[in-house]
UniProtKB/TrEMBL annotation, chains A, B:
Residues 14-82 form the HTH gntR-type domain. The keyword Membrane does not apply. It holds the Pfam family UTRA. SUPFAM superfamilies: Chorismate lyase-like, Winged helix' DNA-binding domain. GO terms for biological process: negative regulation of DNA-templated transcription. It comes from Desulfosporosinus hippei DSM 8344. This is GntR family transcriptional regulator. One of its GO terms (molecular function) is DNA-binding transcription factor activity. The keyword Transcription regulation applies. InterPro entries: Bact_HTH_transcr_reg, Chorismate_lyase_/UTRA_dom_sf, Tscrpt_reg_HTH_GntR, UTRA, WH-like_DNA-bd_sf, WH_DNA-bd_sf. Keywords: DNA-binding, Transcription, Transcription regulation.
DNA sequence: AAGTTTGAGATGTATAGACAATTACAGTTA
DNA sequence: TAACTGTAATTGTCTATACATCTCAAACTT
């Protein structure tokens, strides 16, 4: 990994540490520095840019607090993996709670198939006629044999690759995209709404039709902000809630 | 404001900057340093503790990133005010959007009165028989003459102070607590659920009974984590949604 | 062959000092 | 009075250096 030294202007009014921070951030965003890869050592960077090591550390501190890299004493500094595995907001706290309580929970694949693209899908993914096929998944999440949520997922089909149930150990949408397509999931947009469930959803979840539910739509983007995945999930309103704490007190 | 220098152990394995960070954090939490008050200057602190100014800056940087203080070049460093004005999560983004769009929005006070404490209220606020009276508010939030949300608020009544509508410019629960009680709102817990609205709520909001709504319960705590306020708000499900972005890309 | 020690290299903490940028305020001037 | 100016105080940036702590692997010992 080579960082171009000439991109730092030491006489600029913009602080050196900030220029360096932006420079490395750009390398990561463009993919020149991939998750898991190591940054040059602080010593190397300070030599290459002819700046103090403390200034390099200031830039790296910014990257750390932005969650883009992590440092390990004695080893080095590494590019972090984007956290896209959460289902939504703090809803995953609930799932963590399930595990902490030792409850028996699992994801069940109801259906997985290749479908033909229709107009709505092509618009949602901003693709033309050339993209003919999409992958389609339907899954249910349950705990203690009670069905809690139901999710439908779509991704562009681009790899000639069989859909193996064994690969569905990571049923998250970013995981499916990484496994079944050539795209790299990079960022996500999530929209949470309230709704009343349809008859189909009610039957799957075992609740009364028109019960209130959380409705979460998620769009996954690749590094170029091209949509590469979309999902719609329904969470039982009587089993999920979101909790947050404000103020000065730390969460740990 | 005096910070006791003897509380720093320079020979400890715990970093000096971290000890100082914790020391100042404690002063703020205990109320010795109040919001708006200024910290001693970096130079003063470094003299008093006989440590380097850079070490002081490191401690203050931690406080800044924790949102507990803010620094102004040329002026000083000041204790921040806890941000407790948001209604909940990103729902306030919606209200910001209203203002940005130039929509005409307002809060209307439906009712404000002193009520007698019942058993449920006393349990919720963890007070005994000595607290006889509570303040009770009912408000509606509307935009473009459409009612969007309805909220009920309770606080302990401890000041002999008339309830003036002119004081309700800040109708937020922390604002009401600061105005009408002797307590200091310091942190908050918020729980968001989905529900179907009651007949009363439906009538107030002008929607059909049993329509899906966001239900947000909020508890406000003082610096000793004593509950000093509680509210329950209902947001029209067809008018509010929550959006969030994950990944590396900044929100700005 | 297995375990131990040693050392190089990496990040973490701390210091002392220099200068820049901004603010507030007192003093000066029109 | 009003506007300008200079100065001190305060935070912001940057350097150069020293030593601590941690990791890993090579060299050594048993």
């Amino acid at each position: 990994m080579v960082i171009q030294a000439e991109k730092i202007d030491k006489s600029s009014v913009i602080p050196i540490y900030y220029q360096l921070f932006k420079l490395i951030e750009e390398q990561i965003r463009k993919g020149d520095l991939k998750p898991g890869e190591s940054l040059p050592t602080e010593h190397e960077i300070s030599l290459r840019f002819e700046i103090s090591r403390m200034t390099v550390r200031r830039a790296i501190a910014e990257l750390v607090s932005a969650g883009m890299v992590y440092a390990q004493q004695g080893r080095g500094t590494f590019v972090a993996t984007p956290k896209l595995d959460n289902i939504v907001f703090e809803l995953n706290d609930f799932n963590q709670e399930i595990k902490e309580r030792g409850l028996n929970c699992k994801s069940t694949l109801l259906e997985a198939k290749i479908i033909r693209a229709d107009k709505e899908l092509r618009e949602r993914f901003q693709v033309g006629e050339e993209s003919k096929r999409f992958l389609y998944f339907r899954t249910v999440f349950s705990a203690e044999d009670e069905r809690l949520s139901y999710e439908v997922k779509y991704t562009i089909y681009s790899k000639s690759r069989p859909i193996l149930e064994s690969e569905l150990k990571d049923p998250s949408l970013p995981g499916l995209i990484a496994t079944h397509t050539e795209y790299v999931p990079m960022s996500a947009k999530k929209v949470l709404q309230v709704a009343v469930c349809t008859e189909e959803e009610a039957a799957i979840l075992g609740i009364a039709p028109n019960s209130p539910v959380f409705l979460v739509e998620q769009t996954i983007y690749d590094p170029d902000l091209k949509p590469v995945g979309w999902s719609k999930a329904v969470y039982r309103g009587d089993r999920y809630k979101l909790t947050s704490y404000d103020g000065w007190y730390k969460k740990d």
